[in-house]
Amino acid sequence: MKNIKNISIAFALFVFNSFFAQVAIGKDVVNGNSTVLDFNNASGNTKGLILPATSGVPTGALVNGTFVFDVTDNIVKVYENDAWKPLSDAGNSSAVVVNNTAETGKGVIMGDATSPADGVLVLESQNKAMILPQIANPHTNVKNPYPGMMCYDAASKTLAVFDGSVWNYWK
User: Fold this and answer.
1) Rounded CA gap, 114 and 12, in Å?
2) pLDDT value at 7 more than 70
3) pLDDT of residue 19
4) Order of strands, sheet of 53-54, starting from the edge strand that comes earlier in the sequence
5) Long-range CB contacts for residues 11-17, cutoff 8 Å, separation at least 24
């Protein structure tokens, strides 16, 4: 049942991307013309974006701006300037549910027809960006954060990532 739901969501994202090149999740309209992916950021939102939990960091042809939660050292990382950089201290991955399902396909690409990046969800655009889910004070308002959760803290105006133990903030 979960696979059918995931396939349906991926198909819907593909269809919406093909026609509009902008997608809103949890709301009816995308904020502005410069957004490729936008989340419901209504007051009281407590849902963030969950990064893929990987065993080690991906290798091969990587693209700057790739984010993962590495369960080998329990650190949220970003690939930047051809190197992996930590965005958190070592956290806790005990809550991560292991996905042993074989991957098929290349993933969903939004904003363009193709991409050199290999990911589950790839946002590819020369003039559009993603608006992260906005949560005011996620450390107090998100009751059960999942390791690798990422959002924008609307109160402190910082990027917030959860490493499985604590929230880490970046200005």
Assistant:
1) 17
2) no
3) 45
4) 53-54, 66-70, 75-80, 83-86
5) 13/108, 13/110, 13/121, 14/108, 17/108, 17/109, 17/110, 17/111
